[in-house]
Amino acid sequence: MAETWLIVGLGNPGPKYSGNRHNVGQMVLDELAGRIGGSFSSHRSRAMVLEGRFGIGGPRVVLAKPVTYMNESGGPVSGAAKFFGIVPDHVVVIHDELDVPFDAVRLKLGGGEGGHNGLRDITKALGTKDYYRVRVGVGRPPGRMDAADHVLRDFSTAERKDLPFVLSEAADAVELLVRDGLLTAQQKHHPAKA
Is 116 a known active-site residue? Predict the structure, then answer.
């Protein structure tokens, strides 16, 4: 059987948070779900899941949206990984990133959590930092705004115009990562250094 990948979109549950910058990971997961076809259903891992493939004969994937709050994402991620028999190096976590400008997508394996409580909880639950991250830029907060306030606000009107393109690019990056590996995905989605 082909190896299965667990693709996790981070966010907070409920309609109050659905348009927040902090929920961009779940927005990307919705884009991927639309490409696969099908709908999410409740799972005992405390996540909404959708099983499918990236294209005919493509890699088998499990898309998962934890139904816990962001800072408690670890339990659902490790629960889904155990249930589906997926090892950490086949886990991809899509999340908002303050240190990446809005409309940019960056990919990496392992590394620090950069103060992101969702990632910190996942690292603790998986027992390793060695899982993939697809970092969707939400930019730094303006002025003296607190970072937490910034990520818990909806995207601005101007940002919302470009958001579909950002979500599409992030979904493309996830598919490329799973199909062709990290280096290929980074070469396509990271700008060339001048």
Answer: no
